[in-house]
Amino acid sequence: MDKDLLKKVLITIVLLVALGYAGNVYVLEPKKEHIVRLDREIKSVTLKIEKGRRALRREKALSREIAELEAKLETIKAVLPTKEEIPGLIREISRLGYYNRINYALFQPGKEVVKADQGYAILAIKLEFKAFYPQLVSLLSGISKMERLVKPVTLEVGYVSRGRKVIPENPRLMVKCTLETYRYMPLQKRKGKEGGEK
Predict the structure, then answer these.
(1) Residue 155: is its pLDDT beyond 60?
(2) 26 vs 22, 30, 36, 56, 173, CA distance in Å?
(3) What DSSP string runs through 19-43?
(4) What is the mean pLDDT of residues 52-76?
(5) Residue 21, Cα to own-chain centre: how many angstroms?
(6) Which H or E run contains 84?
């Protein structure tokens, strides 16, 4: 083989190897690094998208739950008296006694107690009276059917004796009772201290 031809072939091989090396170092390596970076970014973005989708699903579930809770709150608020309705509610309880021919020995609405951390206020009404059993049942039935929520929380019933005897057929009863009603406290009014509003 000719020496010139051999030199040309060697030079061509060296140039091809050098070009291949240079192409690898200056073109392919940056591309590979770029591909690796892109691959990492794709994985990172995919994870963020998946987190976002999970958050969106949680948000939708929370939105549904909030809507259900708001509907329940509206239902509860519908049976609780407003501050303006409290005097009428007290009069209605008094009238129920009158209609059942009950003379209250004690009819004492208490001071409203605000439970700021729980979102409501409690109004207790203490009652003491004498009544026959049907009158007591009728009064409690009337209270349970009121448009606004009023419930007995304590009820003490004893016999009233005439002298030393109790008439067994239809005994007269001595009743001590505490009724409670609750008023919803909107968020901006819950900041007051317990026992009163700000």
Answers:
(1) yes
(2) 6, 7, 16, 44, 105
(3) HHHHHIIIIIHHHHHHHHHHHHHHH
(4) 89
(5) 68
(6) none
